[in-house]
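Running log. JK asked me to keep both predictions on one page so they can be read side by side. First protein, sequence followed by its tokens:
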Amino acid sequence: MKLTRGADYGARGMIRLAQDAPDRVMLVSDIAAREGLPESYLAKIFQELARSGIVRSHRGAGGGFSLARSAEHITLRQIVEAIEGPIALNTCLEQGQTDACERMGVCSLYPVLKQAQEQLLSTLEGTTLAQLAAESA
């Protein structure tokens, strides 16, 4: 499994927003410049984050983006899933897909993948934007 470029850029942009403007509005152009990211792509990613309620979009003069809640209440899992959708290591582990495979009852791979996914999700859920911002400072 590999994070998409969008998830990577989104996480990096969110970390920069949490560091530089935790209680303010920041332009995507400033975030992109500080992180060396393509501005137009980052703007699309931030629109996804806004639709998910992780950031707020502010229009007009002084517009840009701000955190929708404190960085302590935003997890890396929320950021990644806002951009990529639900995380699943295999089809049989997708939400609501427990009958997606006819080998489910006899598959020796399923319990291993399930455990790996649970550990991955736990790590992402247990990592807050505030932690990431502090470690990157």
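And the second, directly underneath as requested:
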Amino acid sequence: MTKNTVKRADITLPLLIEYVDALLPSLTTQTEQSPEHSKDNNEALWVTHNNADLLALQAQLDDTTFINENTEAKLNARHLSTLSDLAKQHVPDRYELACFWLPTLSAELTQHYVPLLMRYRDLYAAHLLIALDSSIDLKPYGFTPFNILNEPSLNIDDIQSITSSTVTATLWQFNLYDYKQLPNWLNADYWANPENWGKHRW
């Protein structure tokens, strides 16, 4: 088993929004190319702890979209919710990307919402980003720490203005498509004993 050596770094909400805006078009392209994921919702699901955080997130998203191009496309490519509203849904939608901005969530409440996070990890999101207080560790639940600043796809000219926010969090991720390295034995070359084809009757 390989150990993840990625260092954790504090991120801000504007930086996370920039990353999601850069990531979402590539995820949409992947979904269009693979028919088995065509049922996934191409919107980004944004989740906060409470309504006050949700209003702050909405304002930040509106400010960021106003600055960027393709405003209408980005406004249509998001869905906002709180943790309690999400927990009440009987049949949640499946999203290509779910982003949980929870820097004010306490460790006790995090334990209460871990089953919800794991449901989205396993069933309802192909890509999952969770921003929490730096004292909370999600490694036991299969999430890996993620440093956005080392991401080559993120091209930000003025990184200082985006990282100067007062509220910071540590980012965790889970990607359904690369969470586990493919072992050598799980390869078509090793299936059905091809060395015995034509030699023995099975």
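Observation for JK regarding the second prediction: Residues 13-33 form the longest helix (21 residues).
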